[in-house]
Target: Aldo/keto reductase
Amino acid sequence: MTAITRNIGSLSVSAIGFGAMPLSFGRNEIPDHEQALATVHAALDAGITLIDTADMYAPSWDTMGHNEKIVAEGLRTWSGDRSRVVVASKGGIVRGPGKDGEKESSGRDGSAAYLRSALEKTLANLGTDTVDLYYWHRPDRSIRYAEAVEALATFQQEGLIREVGISNANVEEIDVAVEVLGQGGLAAVQNQFNPTYFHTSRGELTHCAEVGAAFVPWGPLGGTGGGAAAVGERVPPVAEVAAAHDVSPQQVVLAWEISLGDHVIPIPGASRPASVTDSAAAMELQLSDEELATLNRIIE
Model:
């Protein structure tokens, strides 16, 4: 399949990416190693050229980097052209041993020192000298927002990352990042957005178009734990359009989301080859203006 492409800064990627998190982390049982690699390969075979990972996607605190290593191995063992694939990773979330009976602890650290340490580990996990796209994962309210963005700008100047992104950011934080990086310097904003969760990200989706950044919805189908699987039941208009086209409700959601702007690049997660192949097929699904208008009313 030849996928339609979109831009993330200087990078060209498929209009739908692959969120690799379910291969290592989440509410559902993670797949075995063979299935995980098969899922990465299926995404690539289906024409997806953007893979999203993060250092903290791991079964436990002491296996940080698990997902990045799977992505790296999946790319290394794939028979296709690796040069056209963009890998995005994230840093800034801390996981550690728990206290007072807790299984583990978690926190955020956006300091330049921590982000550099995290990035160096990511580079090693991915087996590369440069990360294509690197996000600050979540805001650390103990520091100035600009401080972490300044650190990412430094890493970019050093050639450690190609493009800079921020994740889970509001409009004000997007503007801070643009101020630090300069117009066009912020490549992407990755926020939660789907038909049942959009109230805190609709403005950010619009604002990203205004500042020239890609908007990358995470959890675009409703998230793990059943949300994605039941999206048709939870959003009846989606089920109706899916039935009319004889496709899955998930395909309809993704096709609708990429219609919201040329800067919108959803990254549905998957832990099975069949799931990611179905998601990729949304890039070929043509919805009518009437159907899109019906779906747009969901977020009005």
